[in-house]
User: Fold these one by one.
Assistant:
Number 1:
Amino acid sequence: MAGRWKPDLTWADVTPKAAYMNRRQLLAGAGAVAAGAIAGPAMASLGAVPSPYSTDETPNTFEEITNYCNFYEFGTGKEDPARNAHMLTTEPWAVRIDGLVDKPGLYGLEDILADVTLEERIYRLRCVEAWSMVVPWVGFELADLLAKVGVQDGARYVAFETAYRPDEMPGARFPILDWPYREGLRLDEAMHPLTILATGLYDEPMPNQNGAPIRLVVPWKYGFKSIKSVVRITLTADQPHASWNHSQPREYGFYSNVNPEVDHPRWSQATERRIGEGLFAPRRPTLMFNGYADEVASMYAGMDLTKFY
Ligand code: MTE
């Protein structure tokens, strides 16, 4: 399942040359970024501030993060999103926030971002397919947005929906999933400070293939929970529809917390391949809750994680 990674499409192939050269120069002059330190002024186009929640592991390169993607609306190949996601119109963008909230409405992205502090969150990302990356996201806590719209008593879950635009999304013309792509979290998971809405990476606006202009990032869960290009957030009383869970419930649980002890029915989840390390590098042991157990394990106290997988 974790297919052979062929980096046959580079950032240079999908980016205007001037932007590409600019990026190379910036990266060359900012070795600190690759080392996971705070971006210097030359890189600070979004001005994200550092966060104690960041890992000190070395981030993957911008090229790796933007060329090895899962975004089935643009095709099922790892390089398809980089090739096709430029077709997505990301401006203007609005997110409908509804359900059990005090202030439902259609919120323009600029209103959502008006008074948030963008932070750099360097997180591990563990895909259910047993590969991983480290990504320097830029974003803000989902809890801040939920506080602004006012969560009503009775809300127990948060549902998310990706844009569904077959005219801009060649992959969404095929019935691979029950479109639109949908995901959900329990309310306490959604309110957890590690849970962010990300609008960029490497201190730059989110590349389309990574879920522009705004996507969810939940670092202790398998990557498919981190839904891209979000257009709707709904507070609900009941557990919401989640696309992968709906399509293959036995293989993809609603919780999908990273767990090396619960194998996928078709492959082991005990280890993972870090993108960029090469095919012959030793696999890394997968960590419980993707290494975020200290922060999140208490939310699942008393739950049988082999049953609620
Ligand atoms: N969101 C949408 N709308 N469509 C997708 O196909 N793929 C998921 C998730 N979010 C996906 C999605 C999967 S399987 C993973 S591993 C992550 O996005 C990958 O995020 P990345 O490509 O930015 O690394």
Number 2:
Amino acid sequence: MALTSRHLLRLQGMPKDDIAQILDTAISFKEILNRPIKKVPTLQGKTIVNLFFENSTRTRTSFELAERRLSADVLSFAASSSSVTKGETLKDTARNIEAMKIDMVVIRHNAAGTADFLSKVINANVINAGDGQHEHPTQGLLDMYTLREKFGKLEGLHVCIVGDVLHSRVARSNIFGLQTMGAKVSVCGPATLLPRGIEQLGVDVYHHIDDVLPKVDALNVLRIQMEREAGGYFPSLREFHRYFGVTKERLDRAGKPITILHPGPINRDVELSADVADGPHSVILEQVLNGVAIRMAVLYLLGASE
Ligand code: CP
């Protein structure tokens, strides 16, 4: 069955059945990733363009791998070496690429709303790979997949998102997606790194990490986004680590195992200590693998809607 939209722009407002369908479809694609031959002909004949206007390691390689595993023709476009540097607009760039008869566009951009805009000016399916501080829907989906795989369900889980929520598109996608699937979401961080009015999204707000640890099943620890000037919102990285850093000592004091997620890239020993990042309760590298399966599922389901 096709998804209700032909684009993936956000998890806010996405129907529960659509999210469940993507998560369920990703199970079969993960199974393919574990085979000796990891390629299927599902998107043979389709052409997908990856438009990355902002740096990325995980998302870009994960989309490219997912597209190639599905046998699509793949074109990856780095804004820094394109005619964007000569002043060409996003609309003109996208429409010129589309004139070459492409089927899908994956876009990452530092401006919120870019994927939405693109979906209105081109006919190809558009997938948001992160737009400014707005949303990162495939990250939210892969986080949910990883949690569901670990706990067997999302309904009733309590997940706390820790750190630089203010600048985080991952936080927003997690909040919307997890709540739709019946999980409870809290946020924890210094007041300066939590968006004003965030409780209106239905989350509980904590300013002391030791208060929330005994209550949660999982922490999704966010990167301090220094490139978005997050360092100006608290006195020093050392102080942030002392009050909000997720450390082994803190987790031990909570008296129960807590699953640790992080979307990457990690600032080791700032938001997350190295022994926790590499420890037995970390699912960070599983998130990376699951990201390929989730992106295969999204590409397949959107491709199937045509
Ligand atoms: N999680 C994530 O979006 O990482 P990248 O910025 O490396 O793509």
